[in-house]
Amino acid sequence: MSEDDDETPWQPPQRSTGTRSFPARSRSSSRGFLLAHLPAEARPRQIIYESNLERQTALLLLARRDLRNLWDQPPKVAFTDKRGQIAHHIFDYLAEFDGGRRVAIAVKPQARAERLGFRETLARIRADLPPHFADEVVLVTEKTLPAAAMHIAELLHMFRACHDPEADGIVGDLMAAQYRPFCIADLVADSGLGGRAFRALVRAIYAGLVRADFDSRITSATVLLPPESR
């Protein structure tokens, strides 16, 4: 066996941390899971979602460079409802960021949140939330998800699975020589790698090696900027 061979035995992804069970089939939702290798974890783990809105929320969270860990369906929390009775709630996600800040995230379609008066319920949950559980509570609806950033997060999730150290290295060397804004198409052409270079550039954006406008979709015509530190 050569020195380049990886002797590390393959290990399956960790199972989801979800605590809430749901029926195997439903006409009203789209359930599945993402695989994510989070900085705080030794190996990839399943992140379960119960709707496309939850999936999009998870992708945007996973695209953040300051995200350390993400739990889907964390343990339930108790709160006092409007009748004065003890009720329980399970957040859709609990995110931990660099520095230890934790954010509990509830995901609901805008119309449903308004119909249920969920913002009032969430305020009650926030008031009774144990300090160790989360520092902040956030409601995510389809109205709060930026379309362009969502598109880029989808790309990143796909391209992270395309491990290509050679392309990353070549593109990294080409970017290191750039001191002015440059077009993705030009750098892809200079690399001679075609789509491999495009995928490497998307990974580089989220690694902080180059800057992009997150208010616009990433295409071959996108103009990128060198890091601000240069």
Automatic annotation (TrEMBL):
Protein name as annotated = TnsA endonuclease N-terminal domain-containing protein
What species was this sequence derived from? Pseudogemmobacter humi
Enumerate the residue ranges of region (Disordered): 1-26
Species lineage: Bacteria, Pseudomonadati, Pseudomonadota, Alphaproteobacteria, Rhodobacterales
The domain of life is: Bacteria
